[in-house]
Amino acid sequence: MSAVAKASATVGSGNYDNRSFAVQVSGSADKTSPVPYFLLAFKVSIEEDDHWLNKLAVWGTSSSASNSKKDDTEGSQYRGKISHVEILINHEDEKWYRYSIMKKTGQRRKDGSILWQWGKVHAIATKPDSVKNYRFYRINSSFEGVNKALSFLEEQVNNGSQFNFSGYVLNFIFPFKIGNNNYLQAVKKKRNNWFCTELVICALQAGGVWHMQMRKACAVSPNELYRLVTEEHLGDHVYSHIAL
What we know:
Blueprint: E1 7-11, E2 21-25, E3 37-44, H1 52-61, E4 82-90, E5 96-101, E6 104-108, E7 114-118, E8 121-126, E9 134-140, H2 143-158, E10 162-163, H3 165-170, H4 183-187, E11 193-194, H5 196-206, H6 222-231, E12 236-241
Parallel strand pairs: 10-11
Antiparallel strand pairs: 1-2, 3-4, 3-9, 4-5, 5-8, 6-7, 9-12
Helix pairs in contact: 2-5
């Protein structure tokens, strides 16, 4: 299935960070179309509404986002405050789909209580302007790259790949790393466990994003990935919805 389709949409307004953007995505058969791309969505940890595990992750990895030099580049004020990341791809049905993994998911029982289970890789149809407390960055790719990344992500969804809790807790404390080193290693397995950046890094590697090829996926935190994107100018900021 082609990952991208002819579509145009305008999302956002001047209400959020005074930013808006127009998205133009074209079909893979049209070689004269604009360069296809991913959107990376970084969740800014707002103390009042974030899960305690997200707060722990932010606290434990904030040093990886710091820069000893004075830094006033775009988005620098949010470094050290990122708790989660998702990758968005535009499908043939002209909808954006969010791919990532949450720590837990809940199903409400008939008696009103919630049954909590470990999260699985998800694909959720969405609109970028409907997600609160996220910052979106455009990462250019190719038609082949977007389709490879989509194929990889869909495989993880269909396999029911679950949350890499051990890696999430231990990888940013101890020097050894638990999880997938890279995309090529991951595709050899029938089933993988992931935390969010581990999955997103492998998807970007599948998509041919050059700056990600040598990164060890299970060693990168959301804060570190945000620092790489902003400090090394790997992507363009296109939209924010930060409810401060």
